Amino acid sequence: MIGISKIFIYAEPRCRSIDYEDVAAYIQEKMPAAEVFLRGPLLEEFTGGGAAMREARARALATALAAARIRRIEGPAAQARQPLGGEVEYEFRRLKNRESSAFGILYDSRMILEICRDLIPSTESGLADLSIIFTNQLIGNRDLADKRYHARTVILGAPSIVSTGGVAEAPARARGYYLARRSSEWLGLQEEEKNRLARSFADDFLELEDPRLTSVAKGLAMQAVVYRLTGKPFCTDKDCRLFNAHWQSELIRSQLGSGPEFCRVHSDLLAECQDLGDKPWT
Ligand SMILES: [Zn+2]
């Protein structure tokens, strides 16, 4: 097990239903020997230097983000390319406005990880440091089996990224939902009626303003913590918070179920972390 001495959590202010202080306190409780720091949004941290320098940094970041957009869901892996002026402008405006969202745009996980890695101070990128970045951007990687990009809830790496947009969009809803959506298209219903019909067929699912997102965010942040501790991604037990859910029903079961939070193996691992020490959250 690799020790973690510092955990940096970067919040996403655009997802207001997540209480990040609560998430940070939970991670601190699970990892008492580490110091947990709660920060603002990583991509918008242009605090150093004067106005001109901040503007130049935002412009460079907007260009990198625009280049990380996935243009084709199917086909070969995305390559970095020169983005269009309009795409850069869109990203630039989004960086300036913390109320804005990026719905409908999927970003390449490898390129986003590189962008985040460059923004994290080198003094916080050591082996014993872990950064967990929350973002509302939809982030995807390519599945080798079907050669398509899929949105993900969590991208594990250094740093790790939790996509709040991905929580609502990445795990598929119940099959009945899609059948109902398709039927309502055939019937030519209005959007509101389509949604009502779809909901009546759907199982429970999570939305962006769902009050349960704080609890889900805790489990997803723990996936990043345990990945750093063990080097192994996810868990195969559907009742463990480290399970990699592909369906909304699985996500709700693993993160919000009434049983124990973690499987036996991961409970034992986290009990070891409890034995390591007990420091106050800073
Ligand atoms: Zn487990």
Account of the 3D structure:
- The protein is an alpha/beta fold.
- β5 and β6 form a beta hairpin.
- The chain has one domain (14-275).
- α1 (20-30) runs parallel beside α8 and α6 packs antiparallel against α7.
- The model has no long low-confidence stretch (mean pLDDT 86).
- The protein contains ten helices and eight strands.
- A five-stranded mixed β-sheet has the order 2-1-4-8-7, with helices on both faces. A three-stranded mixed β-sheet has the order 3-5-6.
- The structure holds zinc ion (ZN).
- Zinc ion is lined by residues 235, 237, 240, 242, 262-263, 265-266.
Which helices and strands, and how do they pair?
Layout: E1 6-10, H1 20-30, E2 35-39, H2 51-67, H3 85-96, E3 106-108, H4 109-119, E4 129-135, E5 138-143, E6 148-152, E7 154-155, E8 160-163, H5 164-169, H6 175-187, H7 191-201, H8 213-230, H9 248-256, H10 264-275
Parallel strand pairs: 1-2, 1-4, 3-5, 4-8
Antiparallel strand pairs: 5-6, 7-8
Bound molecules: zinc ion.
Zinc ion binds next to α10.
Unique bound compounds: zinc ion
- The domain tally reads 1
- Report, as a whole number of angstroms, the end-to-end distance: 24 Å
**Poorly predicted runs of 5 or more residues:** none
Total helical elements: 10
* Helical content band: 40-55%
Which strand order does the major sheet show? 2-1-4-8-7
Mean pLDDT, to the nearest integer, reads 86
Please supply descriptive tags for the structure shown above.
282 residues, alpha/beta, 5-stranded mixed beta sheet, 3-stranded mixed beta sheet, 8 strands, 43% helix, binds zinc ion
